């Protein structure tokens, strides 16, 4: 008989509610996390967070009372870095300033692809035109999108998410973006690989 | 036998090449326009120009040597105004500053639709979020787009056109925009109505 040996958990809306103020923990979630670990189950947090490095994301969650480590977080940016390396791709980044350190080790000279994240305030007319011009100028445009969310809620209201800007560039360049992050199958598979547990367990 | 009695002509790329400097006439086009009129043919210029009122657009073309009048120009904004009036729609405008006077007569209080044009520098993160929030908050979101171009060239390089931003809002709100302007059939029909000539002539 197959027993459950590990869990993939979402973060935003499961462990805490996000917001410009850093967010608030959801009642009982820190205790639930403790019990999962006490029961000997492995745990991997699967998030589409792309407004901060994993290090800072974990720092924030720990401050909110969650006992987690960087290795227990699967996020789009590190997954994108692996993909870039595998395929010899050099990205032009249109992402949030706080995410840029995740790409520190990646060669970004003479870009042959565009990586799009939830750039928030960096989604300016000039930055979008720049990403578009690079893409349309490529022999074979490669657009990698860190998620494809439509929108999300912050304390000051709804915000367009990366998926909307992905669609704008897809249409302008007549390309299909490669999505890294939920709900891409490959993303969950890499979370399972990090967990060290097969899908059926 | 049916004779040709009127012509619909494009403007940008046919009469002149546009640019931040006002553009340059295409060789022979002013003379061709004169001959068409001298031959007694009716003429309607069909443009997707949405960065200026028709008045200013015509002023610019006249300065470039073209003998045309405002009545000879069919453009998306006046067509959108007719549509808004017919359906009792009150728009929130995300358009170029120079186009706003075209909507002077339209009730814009308590918006129940969004009108999207090539807003250029007005395509800011804040303005896009504002248009999105209004749309998603409507019981039945109505998005009217003045054209659906992918991009266009200016003297300082390629720019994303209104169609890209239309796709972003369509995706975020799960709606389909109503396109006013080329290539919408309705737009050509209204140009023909203004010309006073049936399609087959």
From TrEMBL, chains A, B:
<dbReference type="GO" id="GO:0005634">
    <property type="term" value="C:nucleus"/>
</dbReference>
<comment type="similarity">
    <text>Belongs to the HAD-like hydrolase superfamily.</text>
</comment>
<dbReference type="InterPro" id="IPR023214">
    <property type="entry name" value="HAD_sf"/>
</dbReference>
<dbReference type="InterPro" id="IPR006355">
    <property type="entry name" value="LHPP/HDHD2"/>
</dbReference>
<comment type="function">
    <text>Phosphatase that hydrolyzes imidodiphosphate, 3-phosphohistidine and 6-phospholysine. Has broad substrate specificity and can also hydrolyze inorganic diphosphate, but with lower efficiency.</text>
</comment>
<dbReference type="Pfam" id="PF13344">
    <property type="entry name" value="Hydrolase_6"/>
</dbReference>
<keyword id="KW-0539">Nucleus</keyword>
<keyword id="KW-0963">Cytoplasm</keyword>
<dbReference type="GO" id="GO:0046872">
    <property type="term" value="F:metal ion binding"/>
</dbReference>
<dbReference type="InterPro" id="IPR036412">
    <property type="entry name" value="HAD-like_sf"/>
</dbReference>
<keyword id="KW-0479">Metal-binding</keyword>
<dbReference type="InterPro" id="IPR006357">
    <property type="entry name" value="HAD-SF_hydro_IIA"/>
</dbReference>
<protein>
    <recommendedName>
        <fullName>Phospholysine phosphohistidine inorganic pyrophosphate phosphatase</fullName>
        <ecNumber>3.6.1.1</ecNumber>
    </recommendedName>
</protein>
<dbReference type="GO" id="GO:0005829">
    <property type="term" value="C:cytosol"/>
</dbReference>
<keyword id="KW-0378">Hydrolase</keyword>
<dbReference type="GO" id="GO:0004427">
    <property type="term" value="F:inorganic diphosphate phosphatase activity"/>
</dbReference>
<dbReference type="GO" id="GO:0016791">
    <property type="term" value="F:phosphatase activity"/>
</dbReference>
<keyword id="KW-0460">Magnesium</keyword>
